[in-house]
Amino acid sequence: MDYDFDLIVIGAGSGGVRSARIAASYGKKVAIFETAEVGGTCVIRGCVPKKLLVYASSFVKTFKAASAFGWDVGHNQFNWQRLIANKDEEINRLNKIYLSLLNNSGVKLIPYHARFVNKNTVIANGKEYTAAKILIATGSTPFYPDIKGIEYAVSSNEALSLEQLPKQMTIMGAGYIAVEFASIFNALGVKVNLIYRGDKLLRGFDEDVRNFAQEAFIKNGINVILNSNVVEIKKDNNQFEVLMDSDICLRNQDVILCATGRIANTDNLGLENLQVNLKYNGQLQVDNEQNCGPDSVFAVGDVCNNDNLTPVAIKEGHLLMDRWYGDGKTYIEYDYLPSTVFSQPEIGSCGYTQEQAVEHFGEVKVFTSTFRAMKYAMTEIQDQTFMKLIVAKETDLVVGCHIVGTDAGEMVQGFAVAIKQGITKEKLNQCIGIHPTSAEELVTMK
């Protein structure tokens, strides 16, 4: 058939943009549909702006430690509006870069919402467009539980652009988004309540990591409320009350942040016009070729993955285009994905938790270390760093690496490469550490 395009991409986030650009680099005619800013969740309302706020909040501890190193910092004054204005300026700069990348690669950006008519056709702004292949890269969106008064809550999207720094706020959730925002606002002087229905934060992480991080959050001043479900949010003038089934009531809250998870962005895509495969949680079910049912429809990124990581979406899309239009034969591998929670303290992980490792490998050897980083040795700051290595006893392979502390993400990235390549504990022990660093502890654990 004579199609309008070789490839249509729905969604101009990191995965969609990379896919479109790579396809165009192979000489294909590509269109990408997006109604919001180009860059997606990560660049516009997720990883990047959040990390900028993380940096802002980390200066509090830097100023506190400075005097021990001979610096008289003087009176510190924080300006939330200036931070947000500068953050917005940076995001606008990145958005322009993404637009330029698409334009320079020859991809046609169509700024309208696209819905499927059939497996080769979408409709946008009343006009139909056809393509030999269509890629869904619409990502995910914040989930709001069915709670009375939930309309008064904001999501992580709005939390990045609050007009005023709140005095008191309540955060619902216990995953990486919840603890990251709790850490940011707590460090900036906000009285933060963190509510979770379970008995421990960060479900899915290693148990030792969960215990250590939760204790650190509490020591830092976050009011962690466990085994509690929010049953109602009431508005009282410009403030809010939060009622829980544990008979706890939080009053005079300026902001309620709902960080109870994310769901696949599949609403109003016209999927009812296709025979697509859906998971129990609403995500698209894809096979090894990223296909989700019809022979012409595919998906990458958060819309089909439980690993909601930007680099995963980018890698999926890039490799898929290489296989379609180039001579690529490589497939993404999902084992030993490194990840970081940009909380305070920071959490870096790669590979299996201890519980998962026992289930998968049988008997394991566990190595842990807890210490005070040299950076804080002369200061009043008592923060501790925790490190854990998990080794499969039968093969001596390092199958898990977990760090809680300053620069955890930076350290895990390097060790993740070694773990992915199959490093053993014996080989790790043979490495010479860089002294004095925190990372050297990972090659000296006994």
Topology of this structure?
Elements: E1 5-10, H1 14-25, E2 30-33, H2 40-45, H3 47-66, H4 80-105, E3 108-110, E4 115-118, E5 121-124, E6 127-136, E7 140-142, H5 156-159, E8 168-172, H6 176-187, E9 191-195, H7 207-219, E10 223-225, E11 230-236, E12 239-244, E13 249-253, E14 255-258, E15 262-264, E16 297-299, H8 310-325, E17 339-341, E18 347-351, H9 354-361, E19 364-371, E20 385-392, E21 398-404, H10 408-420, H11 425-430
Parallel strand pairs: 1-2, 1-6, 2-3, 6-16, 8-9, 8-14, 9-10
Antiparallel strand pairs: 4-5, 5-6, 7-15, 11-12, 12-13, 17-18, 18-21, 19-20, 20-21
What does the largest sheet look like? 7 strands, mixed
The helix-and-strand class reads: alpha/beta
CATH topology of the largest domain: FAD/NAD(P)-binding domain
Portion of residues in beta strands equals 15-25%
CATH class of the largest domain: Alpha Beta
CATH architecture of the largest domain: 3-Layer(bba) Sandwich
Query: Mind telling me the C-alpha Rg?
Result: 24 Å
The parts where pLDDT drops under 50 for at least 5 residues are: none
User: How many separate helices?
Assistant: 11
- How many domains would you count in the coordinates? 3
CATH homologous superfamily designation of the largest domain? FAD/NAD(P)-binding domain
Distance between the termini: 65 Å
Question: Residue-averaged pLDDT, rounded?
Answer: 97
> Judging from the principal axes of the Cα atoms, what is the shape?
globular
The tally of strands reads 21
Helix-residue proportion: 25-40%
